[in-house]
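Example (one chain per record):
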Amino acid sequence: MKEYKNLKAVTSMVTGVLSIILFLLPLVGLVLAVSGVGLGILGLKEIKQTGEPGRGFAITGIICGGIGLLIPAILGVLAFYMLAG
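Predicted structure:
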């Protein structure tokens, strides 16, 4: 029998990874990053309650989503200081 992973966790990982890849597209990367983090947290809560597999996918989605949020923030701060100074 095939063992299915938690759908929120898998979606979190996919959107988190895409947020890193597409961070240069305006708002697309940010929306993907926020959804990756949010779905990862929801997936972890659901996994804890149901015992489904997929915890690693959820954690990966949270981490990649966080990186997808940090990249534009760091680039924005660098751009601000380059233009201001």
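Caption: The longest helix spans residues 55-84.
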